[in-house]
Amino acid sequence: MKIPQVHMGDFDYDLPESQIRKRPLEVRSQSRLVIQKDSEVYFHDAFEHLNKYLNQGDMIIGNASKVVPARMFFQKESGAVIEILCLSPHEMPYAEAFSQTTKVTFSAYIGNSKKWKTGTVTCTLNNLTITAERKGSTKDAFIIEFSWNHSIPFSQVLEACGKVPIPPYFEREEELVDRSRYQTVFAKWEGSVAAPTAGLHYDQLVLERLKSGGVNFEYLTLHVGAGTFKPVTTDVISGHEMHNESFEVSKELIQQLIEAKGKRIAAGTTSLRALESLYWLAYLLRSGDRSMFIPQWLPYQHDLQWTGNDALIYLLQYMNENGLAHLAAKTEICIVPGYEFKICQALQTNFHQPKSTLLLLIAAILGKEWKNLYAFAIQEKLAFLSYGDTMLLDIK
Is the per-residue pLDDT at 266 higher than 70? Predict the structure, then answer.
């Protein structure tokens, strides 16, 4: 298999500005859910009725990553304002980094970076003062050391001084409602700088109805990075450099995936990328590669006869042999037309931006039929992007 030569111009469409929902609905589950009736026929219902379209034994896997208020504003002695967006801990696990009580180092983006090349900048709120110092850079980010004057976890520092990094297409600043609504009801593990938006539609009513209908809802964790908004600037996708994201799955989840009686349904593209990455993680481990890193084009360079269950069973055996309760890895996997799905049988996801890697993922499921689906959504005045409506797609 070869790296796909997918032309981005084939994945453009006109998205009306009026159909980008920039603030959340009052009730999460009142968003619309698009369903495939036949391969080319669609209709929509309220998301609260999701259970009507699933069967006993189906399994939904959501992303339990929690969005952190990772956007902070500092000042130089000159008065210049410097914006810092924390991306991920530098050479430290997420949980350990957020629990640090004196100082911690993160990779980060810097606004006005030309105005701050040396020295420190500070952010003061009430009696809490945070100091930031540049320590170097990587290929696409800066290394920043933060220190603060009270013995509290870094997670509390961000809660006190940070802002939720809502998407740029909202064209507004963070509002109080975003603190709760740009977050899933099942968010648990801190680390994302963008919400796993397919999960925003779930509330306790939906989760209870799913449980009553015999649909199992389980969780993994993939920390969504700012790279999810990275535009594709090349004409052909093979020239695009995919961002990497950290994910973690439990041994219990691997076991449940193996034993699932119905469809394995990813709640969101982040869950799907993590689940599909498990297949390739198993391949790497079996090959003796312990890097726990899945390169973006690996799935297109090997034609394996393993089934998804073969890979999951291998991972379970690997975890048992090594006394592991969890598997942690990083993935750059890029799912585009030509990809063969190994683990997931369905996807619930929002409507994505033109010429984006996420739209390519939809096309990997639907082929050219994605155009009819999106035309239907536009005609029906459905809402797009992070706070928008959603759909449920079978993976053939």
Answer: yes
Do both 143 and 261 map to the same domain? no
Average pLDDT, the chain: 95
Q: Positive or negative, the Cα torsion across 119, 87, 236, 388?
A: negative
Pairing, β 65-67 against β 189-192 = parallel
Same domain (yes/no): 61, 74: no
Check whether residue 91 and residue 48 sit in a common domain.
Answer: no
Residues in contact with 347: Cβ distance below 8 Å, sequence separation at least 6, in sequence order? 265, 266, 268, 269, 272, 365, 392, 393, 395
Q: Indicate if 387 and 322 belong to the same structural domain.
A: yes
The answer to whether the beta carbons of residues 148 and 130 sit under 8 Å apart is yes
The tens digit of pLDDT for each residue in 69-126 reads 999 999 998 888 999 999 999 999 999 999 999 999 999 999 878 888 888 999 998 8
Q: What is the pTM of this model?
A: 0.95
Give Cβ neighbours of residue 288 (< 8 Å, ≥ 6 apart): none
For residue 88, count CB atoms less than 10 angstroms from its CB and return exposed for 0-12, middle for 13-18, buried for 19 or more: buried
SS3 of residue 1 by DSSP: coil
* 212, 317: one domain: yes
* Cα–Cα distance, 256 to 277 (Å, whole number): 17
Provide the phi-psi class of 355: left if phi over 0, else alpha when psi is between -120 and 50, else beta. Answer: left
CB atoms within 10 A of CB 322: 9
- Joined tokens for residue 191: 């680390």
Task: Specify the number of domains making up the chain.
Answer: 2
**Residue type for position 198:** A
Instruction: State the CB neighbour count (10 A cutoff) for residue 26.
Output: 8
Q: Are residues 85 and 214 in the same domain?
A: no
Nearest to 270 by CA among 184, 164, 374, 208: 184
Q: Are 357 and 240 in contact (CB under 8 A)?
A: yes
